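Below sits my pick:
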Amino acid sequence: MGFATCDKDEIIATGLRTEKVRGMRGAAEISAEIAKNEGVEMIVVGLPLNMDGTRGFRVENTLAFIEILKTLTDLPIETTDERCTTVSAYSFMNMSGTKKSKKRGIVDTVAAEIILQSFIDKRKRK
């Protein structure tokens, strides 16, 4: 599971790290802990919509994860479309010359950075 943060002015997202998680509860606990340690004001969760924009079982799992996360933090939680972010992350890493052996360990962090940057950019357009 990848994590990213941004500056106080919400200009640019920066990847933090990737964590191996066990189950939804474990993912929620790590997410809440990182949010607390980083002093974040909001949590943004990528919503894995189907390519046609519909909701499938992955979205339902994500919403269940969010419900668990809500029991662990009082922070506001927002969702944003995460379609194609892993593909974009691999594309970015290919263009930047990231070694194949390193890609697997950081792809979720790069995807989290892309998801957060997309969220930031959409908020600025509104």
Remarks:
- The chain has a mean pLDDT of 92.
- Strands lie at 2-6, 13-18, 43-47, 77-81.
